[in-house]
Amino acid sequence: MNVWIFQANPKRYDILNALLNSSGEVDRWLVNQHWDKIKTGDVVLMWMSGVKGGIYAVGEITSNPLIADDVNALDKYWINEQDRNKRALIVNLRITAKLVNNPILRAELKGMPGLQNLSILRFSQGTNFPVSNDEWIIIANKIDEHLKNDK
Hints:
By secondary structure, the chain is of the alpha+beta class. It is built from five helices and eight strands. It has one domain: ph1033 like domains (ph1033 like fold). The radius of gyration is 15 Å and the shape is globular.
C-alpha cells in the first residue's frame, strides 16, 4: 500500500464543496504524476492548496488509473470553464474521513518532527505527491487526533 497526497487548487476546483457533498461512494480525481505507481487500495490525503493549505480528507483509491473521456462527476466543481469536459487520467476513490471542519494545515505539518522532507512541503507544484511510510505514521496519528477533536 502506498500513500499519496492529491492536491486541488481552490482557485480552479471547489474542493471544499466537493468534499462536503461527497457521499463516501465513488469520487474521481485527476492523476497527473506517478500514474505508474498509484493503484487500487492506496491511501490518499486530500490537500487544498493556498493560504489555508493542508489535509482536508482521507480516502482510499478504488481503481487503478484510467482514461476518462467523460469527467462529468468532476465538472460541477471546476471553477474555470476551460477545465471542464476534458479527457483525463483519473482514479476512482472513496472518502473515508473528512477533516473539512478541522483540517491539518500546512503550518502544523511543517512544525512536526519527521515531516521536513514531506514532498508537498518541499515542492508544491503538481497534483499527486508521494508520502513515505515514516511520514504516513506521523500524519495518521495527527489525523486521529483531529478526528477525535472534531467530535
